[in-house]
Amino acid sequence: MADAYAAAGVDTRAGDVAVELMKAAVARTHGPEVLGGVGGFAGLFDASALTAYRHPLLASSTDGVGTKVAIAQALDKHDTIGQDLVGMVVDDIVVVGAKPLFMTDYIACGRVVPERIAAIVAGIARACAETGTALVGGETAEHPGLLGPDDYDVAGAAVGVVEADAVLGPDRVRDGDLVVALASSGLHSNGFSLVRHILAERGVGFGDRTDELGVVGETLLEPTRLYTGPLLAALAQHPDAVHALSHVTGGGIAANLARVLPIGSWVELDRAGWSPPEVFRVLAEWGELALAETEGTWNLGVGMIAIVAAEEAADVIRTIEASGIRAWVAGEVSTAIRDLDGFEQGAKGVTGGAVRLVGTYRD
């Protein structure tokens, strides 16, 4: 029967080899809470520690990496895309103030190449270890005829926990709170359809070397920055200072910040507070776009935003910057009545506050 399945394009033996290659990396994310190891039908996680919580709430998130995988496939470089997945999933967990507990992954491919799958999962495992997340299971599915032999996509889901009275969000935000921006490492995992369009129009390949970006695909594969550890440290050291967090992913800075502001509040973010990294400037120039035209697509150098009590903002910034992430005050929350024409007001089904960017980016 296995031979018949192989004739149909599915190699179960290759899948077994891939599991063997990834086992050690996955096991390094396991603490005593993980039971059963790798290969079971379901991952088991000992949740008895949750009995120490007064009122534990579970937080969950799921996401993928989007069309950034096309660049990894084009360069045959697969060891960073896993960190992108963890960044997209686990950093959504910390937004509500939750500590991540465990994650699972799913890889769909046209053909199982064990070394390729192992490289992807090793990247996921490294990032899980960095964020304190156990990788408790996953699935690799071979889809011959639906995906090309070298095509794949990745997705994942994670679960975390937070005390009910410690959940971050709009109800904690106050007039006069400061908006603290946390620097991104680059494009992260959003807006790559626009990137690919710009490169195609300009005739630039992912393997091409340019004066501006070096090897283009390698620059674009810079992995998503992981914010979970530094933010959990800030929450632990300044438990009442951070009121809300916003992960700047699809939709850009203004729309994502508006989601975590209370109705009736607004923020003007000063572009002069930072200089978008060179990769954004080059791509915008190649696409004959002003940077402001890309603000709804790319993060432009801001990967996470914290809304912080004004009197503790300096301390929170010091804690974050101790982890090597630049942070700065980019705006202030206001509830004063004003005309909000031209502001982004909520996004992704959330009716929130209003945000717009003002001024000019620093050179």
TrEMBL record:
CDD domains per UniProt: PurM
SUPFAM superfamilies: PurM C-terminal domain-like (SSF56042), PurM N-terminal domain-like (SSF55326)
Start and end residues of each PurM-like N-terminal domain: 55-162
Residues of the PurM-like C-terminal domain: 174-334
Pfam families: AIRS, AIRS_C
Gene3D superfamilies reported in the protein's UniProt record: PurM-like C-terminal domain (3.90.650.10), PurM-like, N-terminal domain (3.30.1330.10)
Pathway(s) of this molecule: Purine metabolism; IMP biosynthesis via de novo pathway; 5-amino-1-(5-phospho-D-ribosyl)imidazole from N(2)-formyl-N(1)-(5-phospho-D-ribosyl)glycinamide: step 2/2
Reactions listed under catalytic activity: 2-formamido-N(1)-(5-O-phospho-beta-D-ribosyl)acetamidine + ATP = 5-amino-1-(5-phospho-beta-D-ribosyl)imidazole + ADP + phosphate + H(+)
Keywords: ATP-binding, Cytoplasm, Ligase, Nucleotide-binding, Purine biosynthesis
InterPro entries: PurM-like_C_dom (IPR010918), PurM-like_C_sf (IPR036676), PurM-like_N (IPR016188), PurM-like_N_sf (IPR036921), PurM_cligase (IPR004733)
Family from the record: Belongs to the AIR synthase family.
Listed name of the protein: Phosphoribosylformylglycinamidine cyclo-ligase
Organism: Leifsonella bigeumensis
